[in-house]
Amino acid sequence: MAPEASPATSRLRAAGDALYRAAGVEVEHHEAEVAGLRTHWVTAGQADSPHAVLLHGSGGSAALWYPTLPALAARRHVVAVDMPGHGETSIPAWPSPGTMERMLEWLAEFLDRFDWPLLVGHSLGGYMALLHFARLRPSVAGLVLVDAGGVGPRPPGFVMATRHPVLGGLLGLAAGARPTRRRMEWTIRRLAVDPYRIPHGQLALDYALETASRPGAGRFQFEVYRSVAIHEAEPGYKVWGRMHEISSPTLLVWGERDYFPLRYAQQAAREMPAARLEVLHSTGHLSYLEDPQTFNEVLGGWIQATYEK
Q1: Distance CA 76, CA 45 (A)
Q2: Is pLDDT at 1 greater than 60 in this prediction?
Q3: How far apart, in whole angstroms, are the C-alpha atoms of residue 185 and residue 177?
Q4: At a CB cut-off of 8 Å and minimum separation 6, what does 239 contact?
Q5: Is pLDDT above 90 for 63?
Q6: Which of 198, 300, 191, 309 is nearest to 251 (CA)?
Q7: Cα dist. 168→150, 159, 187, 220 in Å?
C-alpha cells in the first residue's frame, strides 16, 4: 500500500491539478526513485508518440509548464518532471559545491527511461540540458533552450553572489525564510515584463507559493546557485566558448527583455551548427508564460519543420 500523502503534499497536488484543469489538459501522475530520490513527474499525450521531456527552471516545477502542455501533447508524449528539490519531488541533502553534479547524475538516470527524447529546458533546466548533452553526447532528438542558463560567459550576478564569503552567508540565511505572497509577487515582477499576461496568473501564484513553502526548498535553491557559482569557470560546467560542439538540432527561445542578455542567445545561434533563435517580444525571463500562444506556435512550427517533413 502506498503511504498516505501528507496534508502539505495533498495541497500541492491539488494546486497543480487546478493549473492543469485551467489549461484544459489531462495528465497522469508518476512517482519513482531516481538516483536515490523520490521523483514526481506528469505525462500527457499518446504514450507511443515521440517523447518530449520538460525541465523547469530554479524555483519552478512541472505544473508551471501548464500553458505549453495541451499544444505539445498533440505532437509528443510529454514528460514534465519536478527536478530535485522542486514541486513534489523530494528535497535532497546535497550541499554545495557538489549539488550540480548530483543534479546532473539524477538527470542522466531519469532520461534513461525514455528513448530519443526532445529536451525542453527553461533557465536552470536549459543549463542542465546543455551540460547533459555537452558531457555525454546522449541519444536525444534535439534541444529546446528557453531563456537558458549557460548561454553567456558568466551566470547572473545574483547567482555569483552566493559564493561570496559574507554576502553568500547572508543570502544563505535569507533562503531559509518562509516565502510570503508579497515576496513571491515581487519575484514574478522581476522575472516578467508584464505578469498580468500570464494566463491563470492567480492560480499559478498560489501554486508557486505552495511549492516554495516546503521546508528546505529555499535553502536547496541557494545550494544549487552556490554550486553553479563555484564551478562556473570549470570546463565540465561551462559550455560557453564551445557552443559549436552542440550539434543536436536546437531551438533557442528568448524573451526580448530577459535578464539573460539576448545578444548571447544571438551569438550562440550563430555558433551552433543546427540552431534557430526565436525572440518573444515584450517578454522577460518567463517568456513561455508571458506569451504562451506565440511560444506554442514557434515550438510547434519548429517541431514540424525539423521532425515532420
Answers
A1: 6
A2: no
A3: 16
A4: 130, 131, 134, 150, 245, 246
A5: yes
A6: 300
A7: 21, 9, 19, 14
Looking up cell 518562509 gives 178
Question: Is 56 contained in some domain?
Answer: yes
**Class of residue 257 by CB neighbours under 10 A (exposed 0-12, middle 13-18, buried 19+):** middle
Domain hosting 25: range is 10-304
pLDDT bracket for residue 196 (50, 70, 90)? very high
Rounded to whole angstroms, how far apart are CA atoms 100 and 226?
9
Q: Burial code of 214-235, b = ≥16 C-beta within 10 A, e = fewer? A: beebbbbbbbbbbbbbbbbeee
Instruction: Establish if 309 belongs to a structural domain.
Output: no
* 3 state SS of 75: coil
Provide the domain count of the chain.
1
Cell 548561454, located at residue: 151
Q: How far is CA 267 from CA 79, 133, 273, in A?
A: 30, 19, 12
Single pTM value for the model = 0.95
Query: Residue 39's domain is classified under what CATH number?
Result: 3.40.50.1820
Q: Indicate whether 4 belongs to any domain.
A: no
C-alpha R_g of the chain: 18
